[in-house]
Each structure stands twice: as C-alpha cells, then as structure tokens.
Amino acid sequence: MKKIITYILLSLVIISIVFYQYELPQMEFTDYNYAHRGHFTNEIPENSLKSIEKALELDKGIEIDIRLSKDKYPMVFHDYRLERMVSEKGFFGSYSKEELKQMNLVGSNEKIPTLEEALTFIDGKVPLILDLKGDVVSKTLEDEVLKALKDYKGTVYLQSANPLTNRYLSEKSNYKIGYITVSLLPVGDVIFQKFQAYIADSVSEFDYVALNGKYFKTEDLRTLDNHLIWFVNKNRMIKPNINDNSI
Question: Is the pTM of this model over 0.70?
C-alpha cells in the first residue's frame, strides 16, 4: 500500500513539473477586439445580421457560432437547442435550413443567418472568428465550413472546444486554429484553464487559446497578452493588450 501511495505521489509530482512548464500557445492577432456573437444588445439579438452590422459600425472583429441544420447547411447559432433564442422548441439540428429561416430571433424580426449570408455581409471588412459547434464524431460541419470559406477574401480564424475538430481543421486547412477553454472554478481559474489546454494539446494542434474570463481579475487579464478572453452571454471578446474600457 505504501508503494502504491509513493508511486501516485511521485506521478503527481512529475505531472505537476511538466504542467507548470507548459506555456499556452499564442499568436499575434491583428489589433482588434472582437464582438462575441456579434455586438448584441437588449434590442439586437446575438448571432444575427444586425449584431454583425453593429460590430462593423464599431470597427470590431467578429466572432460567430456555426451549427449545421438538419439538411447540413452551416448556420449562425450558438445553442444546440432553440428555446433560448426563438419561440420554437427542440434541437437545432432537427430543423432544415428553410424551417430555421422562418424563425424570428427573440425580441426582433431578425432571422437565423446562414454562414454564407454572414460571409457576404462581412465581406472581409474585419477579422472573423468562426466557433464551430459540432458533434465529436462527424466531420460534416468542418467540411461544410471549409467549403463555404473557399472563395472568401478576409482574415478568418477557426476555433472549437472539441480537440478532435481542431485536429481535423489543422490537417485539412491552413487557417489558424483556436482551442476554447471553459471556466468552472472561482479560485485558480487561470491554472485550471491552462490545464485544459495542456490536455487538449496532447491530442490536437492549435495556434491560440480562447480563455473564459468569468472569474478573471484585472491582474489576470493583464498577464494574458495575445490570448483571446471571452465572456459568457456578453458581447465582447478581448485581447488584454489592447486598450479596452470593459476590462
């Protein structure tokens, strides 16, 4: 029993040494802060063409979420279920593109855009981050997004919380790839998210990490230059080395 405990403690020490030496992948982004899900407000729904238009007016980079419809069209929508953003209920992927296009986003007459519509609207004016919301097994979403981007002229980054998606995208394209971490701990959150990236880095390739800033303090943010920080249900996604009065 003592030997087992000794081996476990020794293993934890070795893992800790390796982990604390790990540096988060980072890269030089263009000098933009990003509108997370577009620049949405109480009057402008997230991931809508209106939120994209507002971000363009503010000269912000744009981050939007991409999911597949039932008939395999990439659409701009965050949740895997519909209820939070439209009056209909059920899984997003249970509806066709045409059915989804008939739905009004909450509190507005805005419709759910297709990725093609969003790309046409942005037209390379600002950098764009596409957050892929796919399942673990199928690569249809990844393939359809890459197909839609084939003739797009503009700066694009692709990101996902799924390491397998990131590995596939890095193998099939030359786009810069980001890994998204999540926040669970109010104490030691930077270390916890760094650990997530460390594990993901062992099975996939990515160029940067998008960190969840839910519990970050100002001093945490200031030490994370050249990383993107995102905030749940808030319209900003920032680079701490750019002046931003929302920090």
Answer: yes
